[in-house]
Amino acid sequence: MRVPFLDLTAQYNEVKPEIDAAVAEIFATSAYVLGKWNKKLEADIALMHGVKHAIAVNSGTDALRIMMQASGIGPGDEVITTAFTFVATVETIVQIGAVPVFVDIEEDTFNIDPTKIEAAITPKTKAIMPIHLFGQLVNVKEVKRIADKHGLLVMEDAAQAICNHHEGVYAGNWGHAAGLSFYVTKNLGAAGDGGMILTNDDEIARRSISLRIHGMGRERYYYDEIGYTSRMAELQAAVLAIKLQKLEQWNSRRAELAEKYLYGWNGQPIGLPVTSAGNNNTWHQFTVRHPRRDSLMAHLKSREIDSGIYYPVPLHHHEPYRSFTKATTSLPVTEKVSLECLSLPIHQHLTDDQAQFVVSSVSEFLALP
Predict the structure, then answer these.
(1) Cα distance between residue 344 and residue 347, in whole Å
(2) Residue 99 half-sphere exposure toward CB, CA atoms < 13 A
């Protein structure tokens, strides 16, 4: 039985009439940039996350870069984060001239280990960038407590955390700013790239709005600082605003599939994902751990079940970022997890039969000597 990791065609077909009509309208009116769909998307997500400002940009990468620059992070500043993440987290820190400082992660959630943060703080530390990985928030209360104690900014990498909250308080409210990604593989995915900055800080919002259009101020063709070309295309905003109406339903289906997996492998010799107390989980990924990960992946492939490794090599082992790793840095959990982690299909268009086939196929592997 074929089990795809994603089914973007099925996703499109579910909302095809609405998207096709919106795209036709945009072309008919030639309203391609910062039109009504951008405004609707920003308003709808600001309302969902309970934040004052939502600023649509060209990508999740740009969201991180712009929100850090708008927050005053710059050359020489240290930003504490983790090496178990997509490259954009660390790439953007380096691009604005700051220095990433890596700490280890929790083995059960894959998120930053708050107990490792304070030892990494120096006089140059300006911010903590926790990554809300795979569809749930980090230990936000503890990260915020540490940041407040030391007078540090918190920049939330919420690329995988749309619709995520802790005790009802959503991403974007635990730090000074948060960056969302709408890349095609996300729970809410565009027809390409897209991103958004969330913040309750008026000055960060003002600067972010300026930076996304070349640093232009309130008056056209007058520039306050050096910025970027990072407007969200109106076509992407329309796709996202329409899909957003389905997001709660789609996330509920992901949760149903996660329960099937958790029940099916309960008590078996495999590391299952853990949802922290107080968190909701939108299951952007369902990531398991096994010491024979590559063999498990091959076993699934032989049965036409897709899987993926997020992330096979921690960033501190990649050539461009090795120079930022201190000799005293120790990331044993990160390095262990990167050798054991495997993400399984959990998209909302997976059928019950496909999910059961995944359960039985993994169980079959686990029973092998």
Answers:
(1) 9
(2) 17
Last residue of a domain, one of 222, 244, 266: 244
Judged by phi (left if over 0) then psi (alpha if -120 to 50, else beta), residue 63 lies in alpha
Sign of CA dihedral 75, 79, 83, 85: negative
Of the candidates 44, 41, 88, 38, which has an alpha carbon nearest to the alpha carbon of residue 68? Answer: 88
Averaged pLDDT, 343-348: 98
d(CA 182, CA 123): 35
In the listed set 203, 227, 244, which residue is the last one of a domain according to the structure? 244
**Strand-pair partners of 170:** 165
Q: How many Å apart are CA 283 and CA 268, to the nearest integer?
A: 21
Percentage, residues of the chain above pLDDT 90: 95
Please count the structural domains in the chain.
Answer: 2
Q: Please, what is the average pLDDT of the chain?
A: 96
Q: Is the dihedral of CA 237, 238, 243, 245 positive or negative?
A: positive
Q: What is the pLDDT of residues 131-166, one digit of tens each?
A: 999 999 999 999 999 999 999 999 999 999 999 999
**Residue where the block lists tokens 């939108």:** 282
Q: Where are the alpha helices (DSSP H) in 50-139?
A: 60-70, 88-95
Write down the pTM of the prediction.
0.96
